[in-house]
Amino acid sequence: xxxxxxxxxxxxxxxxxxxxxxxxxxxxxxxxxxxxxxxxxxxxxxxxxxxxxxxxxxxxxxxxxxxxxxxxxxxxxxxxxxxxxxxxxxxxxxxxxxxxxxxxxxxxxxxxxxxxxxxxxxxxxxxxxxxxxxxxxxxxxxxxxxxxxxxxxxxxxxxxxxxxxxxxxxxxxxxxxxxxxxxxxxxxxxxxxxxxxxxxxxxxxxxxxxxxxxxxxxxxxxxxxxxxxxxxxxxxxxxxxxxxxxxxxxxxxxxxxxxxxxxxxxxxxxxxxxxxxxxxxxxxxxxxxxxxxxxxxxxxxxxxxxxxxxxxxxxxxxxxxxxxxxxxxxxxxx
Length: 334
What we know:
This protein is an alpha/beta fold. It folds into two domains: 2-145 and 186-246, Spore Coat Polysaccharide Biosynthesis Protein SpsA, Chain A; 252-333. It has helices at residues 2-20, 34-47, 66-73, 88-97, 117-127, 156-164, 166-169, 203-208, 221-231, 256-301, 317-330; strands at residues 24-30, 53-59, 78-81, 103-107, 111-112, 131-139, 150-151, 190-192, 194-195, 198-202, 235-246. The strands form two sheets. Strands 1, 2, 3, 4, 5, 6, 8, 10 and 11 form a nine-stranded mixed beta sheet that branches. Strands 7-9 form a two-stranded antiparallel sheet. Helix 3 links the parallel strand 2 (53-59) and strand 3 (78-81). Helix 2 (34-47) runs parallel beside helix 3 (66-73). The longest helix is centred in the C-terminal third of the chain and has 46 residues, at 256-301. The chain starts with a helix and ends with a helix. 38% of the residues are buried.
C-alpha cells in the first residue's frame, strides 16, 4: 500500500504539472529598457486571460535599474540577471532554456498590447499545424501600420532597390517594394518571411533550428532565425487580426554611432553566410556608393545645419556626417 500511495502521489503531481504548464512563454531581452518595460509588462499582465502564460526577462546588465524595477514591480516575472551584455540572440537563448511553454513569443521590450495577443497566438498555432510560427500586425504608437516591421528576407536585389530609392519612389510595386512589403495592405492572414519585434514560434521549431545564431551580437539575428525556420521547411504567418504596438529603435538610440556600424556589420555577416565571400562584395559596393552619396548631401547641408530640422537619432549633423564617413571607411573590413 505504501508503494501504491507513493505512485499515486507521483502520478498526481506529474499530471498537475502538465495541466499547469504554460501554453506560451514570452521571452523579453532588456538593456537599459526601464522607460519601456513597465508598459510592456503591465499590458501583458492585464490582457493575457485566454491562455496560460509565463514571462521571462533576461536583462543584459542594464545600468538604468531595469532589473531592479522588474523585480520590485513585477515579481511574477521570471527575471534572469546577466552579469554582462550577452547580446540579443544569446540572451534570448538563455531565456529559452528557462521556458516551459509549448510556444515561445520573442518580444521586444518597447512593445505593448491592448488585447489578448497571447490567446490569439496560441489559438492560431493550435489550429494551424502547418505553421511553424506567426506574428501579429505591428502598429506604430499612433495606431498606424508600422511599414517594414514584417518583411521579406533580404537579397542583393532588394538591398539595391532600398539604397537607390526605388523602393520609396514605387512603394506599391511588388518588385521594388518587396523587402518592406509596402505593396501589401496588411489586411489578411498570409505567409510571410520574417518579423522581428514580435515573433511566435513553436518550441520544437525553435529548438530544431538551434535558437538564435549567437555569432550575431546585435541586428540580423532575427533575420537569421527566420531564414533558418523557413529553411527547415516551416511557415511563418502574419495575423492581421492580432496586434502589437511597437515604438522601434529604442536600443539603437542608446549608442547611435556604434549601433549604426553594427547594423551594417551584421548585414554583411548575413550575406556572407548565405551568399559566400564573393556574394557579399556586391552588398559592400551598394552600401559604399550609397554612403558616398549621403556624405555628399550631408557636406552640402552642414553649413545650413541651424536652419534645417535636427537629424533623427543623431545628436547633430556633424555627428551624422562622421558616422557615415566611418561606415564608408570600415565597410570593406566587414
